[in-house]
Amino acid sequence: MPTITPLALDRLSYRYPVPLVDAVVSHERGRSLEAVKSVTVSEDFFQGHFPGQPVMPGVLMLESLAQAAAILLLDRDGEALETRVSLRGVDGVKFRRQIVPGDRVRLAVRLVAERGPIARVAGQALVDDQVVAEATLVMALQRDGVSIHPTANVDPAAVLGAGTTVGPNATIGPHVRVGRRCKIGASAVVDGYTELGDDNEVFPLASIGLRPQDLKYAGEPTRLVIGQKNVFREFVTIHRGTVGGGGLTTIGDRNVFMAYAHVAHDCHVGDDTIFGNAATLGGHVTVQSCATISAFSAVHQFCRIGRHAFIGGFSVITKDALPFAKTVGNRPARNYGLNTIGLVRRRIPADAIAKLKQAYRYLLTSKLNTTRALAEIERDQALACPEVGHLVDFIRTSSRGVVLRRTMTRRADDAVVADE
Questions:
Q1: Is there a contact between 374 and 389 (Cβ–Cβ < 8 Å)?
Q2: Which of residues 142, 174, 203 is at a domain's end?
Q3: DSSP three-state, residue 123
C-alpha cells in the first residue's frame, strides 16, 4: 500500500493532532486520488462528541476529504514546493450515515475543474463500499512562496519574487532581482546587476547577466534589465552592458530565445520577438518589436533589425534590416520584399499591408534611387499611415545603411534596388 511521503505531509498545512489522512492507496497524478482514514476510539474528538455514543463529527468528515484533495493538488507536475492548499467552500454536501470507531474510511477525490488559484474537487467518503458522505470541495491554492532547491546556490542578498522557483544546482548572484512567478531551471546561472520581471522562464543551463565578451570591460557594475514573460531556452546567453555602450542591455516582454541564442552587450531587444536556435547578436544591436531572427543567423554589431522584420535562417546581417521585410542571405544579405505572412499573423490591418506593398515597390522595383524613392513615398498621400511613416524614418535614420540589394528576380514584391 503506498503511504503518504514525508514530503507530502510537510506540504500539507496540517500538523498533529489535525491530520485526518493515514495513507494513500491509489493515485492518478493530477486527476484523482484515494486515501484512507482508520477511525479509532482514541480519537480526541470522540471524548466530547456524543458521550456514550461516539460519532465522528460531520465537519471532520469534510475536513478529511479536504486533506485528501490537498494532497491531490499538491503532488503533481509543475506545482511549486511552497504551494499551500486550503478549503475555501463546500457545495452539495450530503451525509448518508454515521462514522463510528472501528470504521476504515476511504476518501476518494477527483479534480473536476481548475481556474487560476481555485480548484473544484469532487469527494466521497466510503465505508465498506457504502457512501457515507459526499461533497464538492472548493479549494484555494496559495502560490506566494519561493521554492529553492536544496542544491541551488542562491546568494542571501538576491531578491526573489513571490511564487518563483529555483531548480537544482542553479546559481543566482548577490545583485540579482527576480520578479514574481519566475522559473529558474536546473544549473542555470543568473548573475551580475540583473533584473528580471514577472513570469520569466529560464531553462536549464542558460546563462543570464554574466560579464560581456568585450576586452575593454574591466568589471564595472553594468546592468541587464529584462521585462516580463520571456522564455530563455537551454544554453541561451544574455550579457550585461559595457561602460562604452551605455552600461545597459535590455530585453522587453514576451520574447522567445530558442536554444543557444546569444544577445551580446549593450543590445536592446523590444517585445514579442523570436530568436531561432543559435541566432546571434553582436554588441550594440537594436532589435525592434515583433521581429524574427531565424536559426543560425548573425547580426553585426551596431546594426538594427526593424519592426516585424523577418531574418531568414543562416543569414549574416551587416547593415540595418528593414522593418516589415524579409531579409535573407549572407553573400551579402538581400531584401526579399514585404513580410506579408508575418504581418497577417501579427494582425496588421489589410489597408496598412497594401500601403506597405506600394511603398516597397517604390523602393525595390522602380528605377528611382533611395532618396528619390523616399521622396515619392512621402509625396504620395494615398500611402500615409503609421507603418509607412516608420519605414521612411527607419531608412532616414540609418547610420550603417540598409539592406536594399537587388535580388535575382524582378517580381514586384521581391526585387530590390541596389544600395546607394
A1: no
A2: 142
A3: strand
Nearest CA among 176, 231, 233, 172 for reference residue 205: 233
Task: Give the tens place of pLDDT for each residue, 322-340.
Answer: 999 999 998 899 999 999 9
* Structural element, H or E, at residue 344: helix 340-345
The pTM score is 0.71
> Sign of dihedral through CA atoms 5, 7, 11, 16?
positive
Which set of grid coordinates corresponds to residue 418? 541596389
Residues 6+ apart with CB under 8 A from 43: 56, 101
Helix axes 370-379, 386-396, angle to 10 degrees: 150
Whats the size of the chain, residue-wise?
420
Give the C-alpha separation, 178 to 164, whole Å: 8
Q: Is 227 helix (H, G, I), strand (E, B) or coil?
A: coil
* DSSP run (H or E) holding 280: strand 280-281
Nearest-5° Cα angle at 61, 57 to 66: 140
The CATH number of the domain holding residue 270 is 2.160.10.10
CA-CA distance, 225 to 370, in Å (whole number)? 37
Rounded to whole angstroms, the Cα distance separating 250 from 223 reads: 9
> Nearest 5°: CA angle at 335, between 330 and 339?
120
Query: What is the C-alpha separation between 307 and 289, in angstroms, rounded?
Result: 5
Residues assigned a catalytic role: 265-266, 283
For 152, the grid coordinates are: 541551488
pLDDT tens digits, 27-65: 898 899 999 999 887 777 776 667 777 888 888 899 999
Domain boundary among 142, 173, 204: 142
